[in-house]
Specification:
The complex is a heterodimer of chains A (526) and B (448). Chain A has 15 helices and 13 strands. Chain A has 526 residues and is α/β, with parallel strands linked by helices. Chain A folds into two domains: 258 residues, Aspartate Aminotransferase, domain 2 (3-Layer(aba) Sandwich), CATH 3.40.640.10; 112 residues, Aspartate Aminotransferase, domain 1. In chain B, the strands form three sheets. A seven-stranded mixed β-sheet of chain B has the order 1-7-6-5-4-2-3, with helices on both faces. Chain B is globular and about 80 Å long. The N and C termini of chain B lie far apart (56 Å). The chains are: A alpha/beta (526), B alpha/beta (448).
C-alpha cells in the first residue's frame, strides 16, 4: 500500500462497494453543505443590524400601530454570511463555466461595470432630487441614448422600459398609438412567426391586438409566400426577431419591411439577438420601426438569477413622437427630464403614457455604458463577429454527430434537434441533464418550437477556443454514448448536481409557495 | 480587447474548420445595402483607467444622498444597508447566473426566492407572494389587471392619493385592455371618499398606505365596502419599512398587496433597478391569475427537498398570447438583496428601523411646522409628511439645494398644474442625524 512520508496511507485502504455509504449523517456532502430555510432556525429574538436606541416616544400611528409580531426570523452577520454563501455554491454561473443558453446571451460580466454602477454619484442618488443636482445622471442617460441610436441608425430611443418584455410593450404601444392617431384603430392583427419568443404574442395581446402566426419555411426563415398572403388592411404590425430564434438571419428582411409598410403596418424587431450584429448591422437600415435592446444580454449587465433587466427601445421617425414619459433632453448647456404631458407636448411629443415610476434602470445604464465605452465601435463589432464565429465553430464541430436543424451557416447561436437521439431512449431533457453531470449548464431546450426537441446553443464571444473545444469534445462524447445505448447515463442524470432530478409536476400539482410553521396547522385545527 | 479571448490565430483556425475564408462570409445573409463599411461612428475602445476616469467625472456632477442632509422620498427612500448585502449579491454564483430554469444547478437562487416569497407574505400579512415584479408601479398595474381577471369585471377605481407615477403606469398598462379606470381626486392630509360609493361592477379599488402625502389610513372600512360590492381591495405601499411598525394590509382586509421594496437592501439607484413586491390570498383563482415567476417546493428523485420554478402555465413562455402577463425577466438580484437585508433585520431589527424613522419624522415635522407660515398638512403619518409653505415649494427646494440640503419633493412635480404649488413632501429615515435635522430647519428658515 502506498504511504506518504508521515506514514499515513495516501490511498484509500479499500474501495467501498459502489452504492454503499452514499448517505451522510449531516446531510451535507463535502463542500456541498445542507442548508435549512432561515425560518427553520426559529431565531426571532435576534438581529444582524445594530441601531441607536429609539427614544421611545409614543407613536403617532394610533390604532394603526401593529402590536403583534410578523414572524420574520433574524440572523447575526456571520450566520447570514454562511447561509447565503452556502446556498450560492448550489448555483451554476458564467464565472464557473460556459453557459450556452440560446437566446439569452450569457456573456462575461466585466467587474469594472459593477464598480462604476456603485459610484455614489450614480447609485446613491434619488430620482426626484432637484434636476440641478443630477446633471451627471441625465448626461449619462443622454450619452447612452446616443450610442444606442447610433448603433441602430434610429432617431429616438425610449429609455424607461425595465426589461426586454417591457421594451416590447413600449414599442407595440407606440405602434398602437400611431395607428390610433392615423384613425386606423381597426388594425388589430399582428403577424408573429411561430418561432417567436413567448413574450411577443403576450405583449401584442396586452396592446389589444390579436396574433396571427406565420409558419417558417423549410430554411427556418419566414415563409415569404405565407407572410404576403396574410397582409391586409387589418394588419397592425409584424413582430420579428432578427437574427431569428433559429439563429438565422432573415435574409428577406428588407422585403418583409417593405411589404408590411406597403400594407400600412409597422415592423417591430425583437432585439434579443442583437449580440449577433451589434456594431456591424444597423436595424434602421433594415426598415425597422421599433426594437428593444436587452442591456442584460447584448451589453453585459448581469442576469442576476433572473433580473434586473433593462429594455431601452429605439423608435423610427414614424413612431418617435409617441415615446413614453419621461425622457431627457439637452436644454442649452444643461440637461432636463421631461416628466409631464404638458411639457412633452411643448416639445412636440405625444407620449402614449408613462410605463413606470421614475426613469428606468439607471444601474443597468451605468453598467452598459461602461461596457460600451470599454469596447468602443471597434470592440463591439469584434464582439459580434466573435460571437458568430464561436457559434459557427460549434456548429461545424458538432453537426456530424448531432443533427443540425437547418443547413448552412448560423449567426450567434446554433440550432440542433433530437433526430440524432432517435430510438436511443434519450430525450432532449435527458441529454441536457447529462450535460449538468459533465459540468455544463444545458443549452436552451425545447425552444424554438418549430423543430422537435430543440437544443439551441449560444456560446457568446466570451469563450476561448480551448473552452469551445472542451465543450464540443464533451457533447460529442455524450452524443456517441447515447447512440451506444448508455441510456441510463442520461435518464438518471444529473447524478453529480446538488440535487437529483426534481419533480416539477408535483410542484405544480401540490403547490407549496412558502414556508409555514408546522405548528400553525395544529393551531388552526384547534 | 481585454474581454475577448480569441486570438487572430484562433480565428483563422476556426474559420478553416468552418470552411469559409473570412468572417464576412458568416454575414452573407445580411442584405448588401445594410452592410457597413468599417465601424459605426462612435469612439474606439478604452482601457479600464480611461473608462473609470470618464464615468467618475460624470458621477461627480451629481449630489449623492450621503453628501447632504437628505429628506427626499415620494416613492424611494434612503435607508442604511448593511455591507454584507452588497458583498453577497456580488458573489459570482448569484450575480452571473441566469433564471433558474435548470433547478438542479440553481438551488441557491431558488431557495432564496422561496425564502423571499415567505418573507414578503409575512411582511404584508398575506398568504402568498410571487418572486417579484420590476418595481412597485408596474406591480400596481399588474394587480389591477389581475383583479379584473379574478372578478371578470373591467372597472377599477384608483385613490387620488395613490402615487401619480403608479396611477400613470397603471393607466398605461390597462390602456388597450378595455379596462375603465376612474381616478378619484387627491386630498392631501385626508383621503378621498373612495369607500362611499363603489359601483356594483367594479373589479377593485386601489389605495396607497401611507399615501403619497404621507398620511396613514385604516384600510378596514374600505376593504369592507369593497367586499360588499364584490370588489377587491388592492393595498399599495411605497415605503416597505412602514410595515415594520404598522398593521399589515392583510390584517386590514386587503386582497392583493403590492409595493416597492427598494427601502430594504436595494438603495436609491436613481429610480432603478428597484424591486416590486406582490402578495395575495392563497386562493386557487388568485394563484392561477398571478403574474410573474413563482418558486415552489418539491422533492428530487431521492425524495430530498428542493425548489423549482412552478405554475409556469400562467407565463408567457408556455402560454404565449393567453399568458397572465408578458413579464419574463424580473428583479432577481434585487430580490436577493432584499431577502438578505430582511434576514439580517428580522422582526426586531425591522421594528427598530421603522421606529427610528418614525421618531425622526415626528421630530422634524414638529420643528419645521413651528416655523412661521409653515403648516403641517398630514396629521397622522409614518416617516413622510406634507407641509404647506408660504412660498412656491419647487423654488424652495431649489433654494435649499443651493444651501446643501436636499429637502423633499414639491407636490407640483408629481401633480403638475393641480394647484399644489405650495405643498412640500418631506421624508425622514433612521439615516438622518440630529445635525441633518438642525441643518434642514436652519436652511428652511433662511429660505422662507
Amino acid at each position: 500500500m502506498a504511504m506518504n512520508t508521515q506514514g499515513r496511507p495516501s490511498a484509500p485502504l479499500h474501495t467501498p462497494d459502489p452504492g454503499a455509504y452514499d448517505d451522510t449523517f449531516s446531510g451535507s456532502r463535502g463542500l456541498d453543505q445542507a442548508e435549512p430555510l432561515i425560518f427553520e432556525r426559529q431565531t426571532y429574538d435576534k438581529s444582524g443590524v445594530d441601531f441607536e436606541a429609539p427614544k421611545g416616544k409614543p407613536s403617532r400611528l394610533g390604532a394603526l400601530e401593529r402590536t403583534d409580531d410578523l414572524g420574520l426570523p433574524g440572523l447575526s452577520e456571520p450566520e447570514a454570511m454562511r447561509h447565503y454563501v452556502r446556498l450560492s455554491r448550489k448555483n451554476y454561473a458564467i464565472d464557473i463555466g460556459l453557459y450556452p443558453l440560446g437566446s439569452c446571451t450569457m456573456k462575461h460580466n466585466p467587474r469594472l461595470n459593477e464598480k462604476m454602477a456603485r459610484l455614489p454619484g450614480f447609485s446613491d442618488v434619488h430620482p426626484l432630487q432637484p434636476q440641478s443636482t443630477v446633471q451627471g445622471a441625465y448626461e449619462l442617460i443622454g450619452e447612452l441614448a446616443h450610442w444606442l441610436m447610433t448603433l441602430t441608425n434610429m432617431p429616438t430611443v425610449a429609455m424607461s422600459p425595465k426589461a426586454g418584455a417591457h421594451g416590447e410593450l413600449c414599442g407595440m404601444m407606440a405602434i398602437r398609438a400611431a395607428l390610433d392617431a392615423r384613425g386606423e384603430s381597426h388594425r388589430r392583427r399582428v403577424l408573429v412567426p411561430e418561432s417567436a419568443h413567448g413574450t411577443n404574442p403576450a405583449t401584442a395581446v396586452q396592446c389589444g391586438f390579436f396574433c396571427d402566426e406565420i409558419p417558417a419555411g423549410p430554411d427556418g426563415r419566414v415563409d415569404m409566400e405565407a407572410f404576403k398572403g396574410k397582409l391586409g388592411d387589418d394588419v397592425a404590425a409584424i413582430m420579428l426577431t432578427n437574427p431569428n430564434t433559429c439563429g438565422l438571419f432573415e435574409r428577406d428582411i428588407r422585403a418583409i419591411a417593405d411589404a408590411i409598410h406597403e400594407a400600412g403596418g409597422y415592423f417591430y424587431c425583437d432585439g434579443a439577438n442583437f449580440n449577433a450584429i451589434s456594431g456591424r448591422v444597423r436595424p434602421g437600415d433594415l426598415g425597422v420601426d421599433a426594437m428593444h435592446f436587452n442591456l442584460h444580454k447584448t451589453y453585459s449587465t448581469p442576469h442576476g438569477g433572473g433580473g434586473p433587466g433593462s429594455g431601452p427601445t429605439v423608435l423610427s421617425a414614424a413612431l418617435a413622437k409617441f415615446a413614453p414619459l419621461p425622457f431627457v433632453i439637452k436644454d442649452g448647456d444643461s440637461w432636463r427630464m421631461v416628466e409631464d404631458e404638458a411639457d412633452a407636448k411643448a416639445q412636440g411629443a405625444e407620449p402614449f403614457g408613462r410605463m413606470v415610476a421614475f426613469h428606468g434602470q439607471m444601474g443597468m445604464f451605468t453598467r452598459a455604458m461602461s461596457y460600451m465605452l470599454s469596447h468602443g465601435a471597434d470592440g463591439l463589432k469584434q464582439a459580434s463577429e466573435d460571437a458568430v464565429l464561436n457559434a459557427n465553430y460549434i456548429l461545424a464541430r458538432l453537426k456530424d454527430v448531432m443533427t443540425q436543424s437547418y443547413d448552412g451557416l448560423c449567426m450567434h447561436e446554433a440550432l440542433f434537434d433530437d433526430r440524432f437521439l432517435k430510438d436511443t431512449g434519450v430525450s432532449t431533457l435527458d441529454f441536457a441533464k447529462a450535460m449538468i453531470d459533465e459540468g455544463y449548464h444545458p443549452m436552451t431546450m425545447y425552444f424554438p418550437l418549430v423543430v422537435h426537441g430543440a437544443m439551441l446553443i449560444e456560446p457568446t464571444e466570451s469563450e476561448s477556443k480551448a473552452s469551445l473545444d472542451r465543450f464540443c469534445d464533451t457533447l460529442e462524447a455524450l452524443a456517441l454514448a447515447a447512440k451506444a445505448g448508455e441510456t441510463e447515463r442520461f435518464t438518471a442524470a444529473p447524478r453529480y448536481a446538488p440535487t437529483k432530478r426534481l419533480d416539477e409536476t408535483r410542484a405544480a400539482r401540490q403547490p407549496v409557495l412558502r414556508w409555514t410553521p408546522a405548528s400553525a396547522d395544529t393551531k388552526a385545527a384547534e | 480587447m481585454r474581454y475577448l479571448p480569441l486570438t487572430d490565430a484562433d480565428r483563422a483556425e476556426m474559420l478553416d474548420k468552418i470552411g469559409v475564408d473570412s468572417v464576412d462570409a458568416l454575414f452573407e445573409d445580411v442584405p448588401e445595402k445594410a452592410r457597413l463599411d468599417g465601424t459605426v461612428d462612435l469612439p474606439r475602445h478604452k482601457s479600464e483607467m480611461e473608462v473609470e476616469r470618464q464615468l467618475t467625472r460624470l458621477s461627480r456632477k451629481n449630489i449623492s444622498a450621503s453628501e447632504a442632509p437628505f429628506f427626499v422620498g415620494a416613492g424611494a427612500y434612503k435607508h442604511h444597508i448593511p455591507s454584507s448585502v452588497d458583498h453577497l449579491i456580488q458573489r459570482s454564483e448569484y450575480l452571473t447566473s441566469y433564471t433558474p430554469y435548470q433547478p438542479e444547478i440553481s438551488q441557491g437562487t431558488l431557495q432564496t426566492l422561496f425564502e423571499f416569497q415567505t418573507q414578503v407574505a409575512l411582511l404584508t400579512g398575506m398568504e402568498v407572494a410571487n418572486a417579484s415584479m420590476y418595481d412597485g408601479s408596474t406591480a400596481c398595474g399588474e394587480a389591477v389587471l389581475m383583479a379584473c381577471r379574478i372578478t371578470k369585471r373591467s372597472k377599477a377605481i384608483l385613490s387620488g392619493n395613490l402615487h401619480p407615477h403608479y396611477a400613470a403606469a397603471t393607466h398605461t398598462l390597462a390602456k388597450y385592455m378595455d379596462i375603465e379606470i376612474k381616478d378619484d381626486a387627491a386630498k392631501p392630509g385626508g383621503l378621498d371618499d373612495i369607500a362611499a360609493d363603489i359601483p356594483d361592477d367594479v373589479a377593485c379599488v386601489v389605495v396607497q398606505n401611507p399615501d403619497v402625502f404621507g398620511q396613514v389610513h385604516d384600510l378596514e372600512p374600505i376593504a369592507k365596502a369593497a367586499h360588499e360590492k364584490g370588489a377587491l381591495l388592492i393595498a399599495v405601499f411605497t415605503e416597505a419599512v412602514s410595515l415594520g411598525l404598522m398593521k399589515t394590509p392583510g390584517a386590514m382586509g386587503a386582497d392583493i398587496v403590492v409595493g416597492e421594496g427598494q427601502s430594504i437592501g436595494v438603495g436609491l439607484q436613481f429610480g432603478g433597478p428597484h424591486v416590486g413586491l406582490f402578495a395575495c390570498r392563497n386562493d386557487r383563482n388568485y394563484i392561477r391569475n398571478l403574474p410573474g415567476r413563482l418558486a415552489g417546493e418539491t422533492v428530487d428523485a431521492d425524495g430530498r427537498r428542493g425548489y423549482v420554478l412552478t405554475l409556469s402555465t400562467r407565463e408567457q413562455h408556455i402560454r404565449r398570447d393567453k399568458a397572465t402577463s408578458n413579464i419574463c425577466t424580473n428583479s432577481g438580484l434585487m430580490t436577493l438583496a432584499w431577502t438578505i437585508h430582511m434576514s439580517l433585520l428580522g422582526d426586531t431589527g425591522l421594528r427598530t428601523m421603522a421606529q427610528l424613522s418614525h421618531e425622526k419624522a415626528c421630530e422634524l415635522a414638529d420643528r419645521l411646522s413651528a416655523i412661521s407660515g409653515v403648516e403641517l398638512v398630514t396629521d397622522a403619518f409614518f416617516n413622510e409628511f406634507t407641509l404647506r409653505l408660504p412660498k412656491n415649494a419647487a423654488d424652495v427646494v431649489e433654494a435649499l439645494a443651493e444651501k446643501g440640503v436636499l429637502g423633499g419633493v414639491p407636490a407640483s412635480r408629481l401633480y403638475p398644474g393641480k394647484g399644489y404649488d405650495d405643498l412640500l413632501i418631506v421624508a425622514a429615515t433612521e439615516t438622518n442625524t440630529d445635525s441633518d435635522l438642525d441643518a434642514f430647519e436652519a436652511a428652511l428658515k433662511e429660505v422662507l
